[in-house]
Amino acid sequence: YDITAGQYIAELMPYPGASWCVANAINSNNEVSGFRSIGSKGDTVNPFTAFVWSVDTEQFTDLGVLNGPNSSATDIAEDGTVVGWTSGNIVSVATRAFIRQNGRTLVLPPVPEGVNSYAVAAASSEKILVRGRVGAYTRSFAYFDDTYMDLGILPGFDVVLAHGLNAQGTVVGTVRRLSPTIDVPFIWHKGVLHDLS
Question: What pLDDT does residue 121 have?
Answer without folding.
Answer: 98
